[in-house]
Amino acid sequence: MERAAQGADGGGGSNSSSRSSSRATSAGSSPSCSLAGRGVSSRSAAAGLGGGGSRSSPGSVAASPSGGGGRRREPALEGVLSKYTNLLQGWQNRYFVLDFEAGILQYFVNEQSKHQKPRGALSLSGAIVSLSDEAPHMLVVYSANGEMYKLRAADAKEKQFWVTQLRACAKYHMETNSKMMNQVEGQQKNLVHAIESLPGSGPLTALDQDLLLLKATSAATLSCLGECLSLLQQSVHHVSQPSHKPGASENILGWHGPKSHSTEQLKNGTLGSLPSASANITWAILPNSAEDEQTLQPEPEPNLGPELVLSEDEKSDTEDKEETELGVMEDQRSVILHLISQLKLGMDLTKVVLPTFILEKRSLLEMYADFMAHPDLLLAITAGATPEERVICFVEYYLTAFHEGRKGALAKKPYNPIIGETFHCSWEVPKDRVKPKRTAPHSPASHEHPMTDDPSKSYKLRFVAEQVSHHPPISCFYCECKEKRLCVNTHVWTKSKFMGMSVGVSMIGEGVLRLLEHGEEYVFTLPSAYARSILTIPWVELGGKVSISCAKTGYSATVTFHTKPFYGGKVHRVTAEVKHNPTNTIVCKAHGEWNGTLEFTYNNGETKVIDTTTLPVYPKKIRPLEKQGPMESRNLWREVTRYLRLGDVDAATEQKRCLEEKQRVEERKRENLRTPWQPKYFIQEGDGWVYFNPL
Questions:
Q1: What is the CB-side half-sphere exposure of residue 2 using CA atoms within 13 A?
Q2: How far is Cα 625 from Cα 642, in angstroms, rounded to an integer?
Q3: Which residues on neighbouring strands pair with residue 631, listed in sequence order?
Q4: How far apart are the first and last CA of the chain?
């Protein structure tokens, strides 16, 4: 946004910094009515605002009611400041107008054009105004939406004057928003109380569909407004740390406002089954339940050790690849509405057992395997001739991995794996398909990979995943190719948050790609995921900034998954930048959609386009159910999956309830014996987990 705003400055103005003609004017007056127009010089006007006597003082910036007709209009501040545009054009003089009433800082090419459309504008509510020693008499305005203005005044006194007025304006509008938020919250509480006070029977009840929708949407709207207010308040608190950027664990924020009675009931576990239009579907609230529907089947003895998985037993996967449901059915909507009306923004969904009808017919462990659907790109990383080429190949693979991991655009929730659950599979990749993507010749678009019947002409890529922890819910997966001397070890902790009309899932943890032939390790993180529009046709988007780094070579990459703005903008956008840190050189940039077309630009001027929808997909090979162990994902969830395919939600719910009951029995048994869980395939090392027998 900064580049876009600065790019509008393309012409006009001087490149030199000149004295700012700051002056206060009546917010609704013409230039002839300004203080300067009345014979008061710019410097005198500024001094008058900064001092006492009969002139306007800085205290007048704070709004105060007038004696008669409403709130008094506050003076605006305007004048010339130098604004940093870009590296080519540097600093340029621009005419700035601070509209205190609107809380907006606007700028124009010059004073004569101030009645035209401004070249740019910043909202100051929640903005940070700080001093900078980057250039003489410099100040920086950080808007709450992430936009930034770098400005220079004529001297130190004028710089401080602008800073004082800008900060006062930002503070005033922040406090005004807080007061408005308190009023809105009170009105929403009254609405909820009125609905909940309705009788349980009769022509209009508390469970009326329209009233539930009104109750849910009002709660979600209040929550979203509260989140915005919280973000603005945080920006004010971090005024002394303008460079602060939220980390991965801070991506999903909550508003810590007063909690409603119904929310406390939900979090304390005192609210039982929620009524539904279809009587047999309930959202059980379990005070000691597992993460979502996390369950525990009676598991094999922990000391049995790793199982031997025979590759000759594995067959090409024939499971359905798409989730065909069109969204939430009408008889299920009241269940979701009732739950949403009880939740609070930022609430951890650990104690909420989600209804069966929103589940995807696969485990989260299998979903991680589906992210490996382009193994040829993964193996091609080792074929890179230089460290630069290898890191770029990894970034290309990383950006193309997420598309195939989703079963269509519909947002459904995978089964949360239970402790001790495992998933095994493998891929066979023809050797002639493994080459650096940057130099690979263009092949015809095909969504299926060419098969080969000769194992000696293929690389074997093996995958194993395991749920190693219950609280917190930690999944681990390991993937290796012995012929290419490549392996990936990853541990992920998922944390779900309610966000109004959407649900956010933070992916906490990291993975390590090891290229043993080159002695290189690439450490990477994962983005957050969001399920949007959960009342209609839910859809998934990714968000957040992730990193990829190799300590040995000094190369690193930053990948940003952009969430869709509230107004306008594209969905599923992603940008990436690969840098050689010792020389501070950017060697590759990428932009596009993670589920569509990606364009890569290299430092030698070459470009390349990858369409993720036409990349060949290598189906995983997996053993049939009759040869799987009782704790392997598809065998464990087979009955739930079968009934979901048949559309029998009640039967699927009952099967899931049986698993949950077995979980509670086994968990109590371990607690009584004080026996910690011992995973089969992964060992804890510090805060991470590693495969027991890596390459």
A1: 15
A2: 13
A3: none
A4: 45
Shortest CA distance to 290 belongs to which of 93, 469, 32, 67?
A: 469
- The C-alpha atoms of residue 429 and residue 450 are separated, in whole angstroms, by 9
496-516: burial string, b at 16+ Cβ within 10 Å, e else: bbbbbbbbbbbbbbbbbbbbb
pTM over 0.70? The answer is: no
CB 44 within 8 A of CB 22: no
Instruction: Burial-class residue 238 by CB neighbours within 10 Å (0-12, 13-18, 19+).
Output: middle
Answer whether 689's CB lies under 8 Å from 476's CB: yes
- Taking phi over 0 as left and psi of -120 to 50 as alpha, with beta for the rest, 584 belongs to left
What is the mean pLDDT for each group of 10 consecutive residues in the chain (695 residues)?
Answer: 45 42 43 33 35 33 38 69 83 93 93 92 88 90 85 93 93 84 78 75 74 73 66 52 38 35 34 31 30 40 59 72 48 55 58 60 90 91 94 95 68 81 94 69 47 73 93 92 96 82 85 96 93 75 93 96 79 94 95 93 92 90 92 92 87 84 81 89 93 92
Distance CA 151, CA 140 (A): 6
For residue 279, the 8-state DSSP code is T
| DSSP code string of 217-266 | HHHHHHHHHHHHHHHHHHHHHTTT-TT----GGGSS-----PPPHHHHHH
Cα torsion angle, 371, 372, 377, 378, sign: positive
CA torsion 7-243-227-269 (nearest 10°) is 150
| Residues 313 and 188: beta-carbon distance below 8 Å | no
What is the amino acid identity at position 333?
R
What ranges make up the beta strands (E) of 402-552?
A: 413-415, 422-430, 458-469, 474-481, 486-498, 503-515, 520-524, 528-532, 539-550
Distance, in Å, from the CA atom of 152 to the CA atom of 42, rounded to the nearest integer, reads 17
Q: Indicate the helix (H) or strand (E) that contains 44.
A: helix 42-50
215 to each of 275, 285, 334, how far by Cα in Å?
A: 15, 20, 11
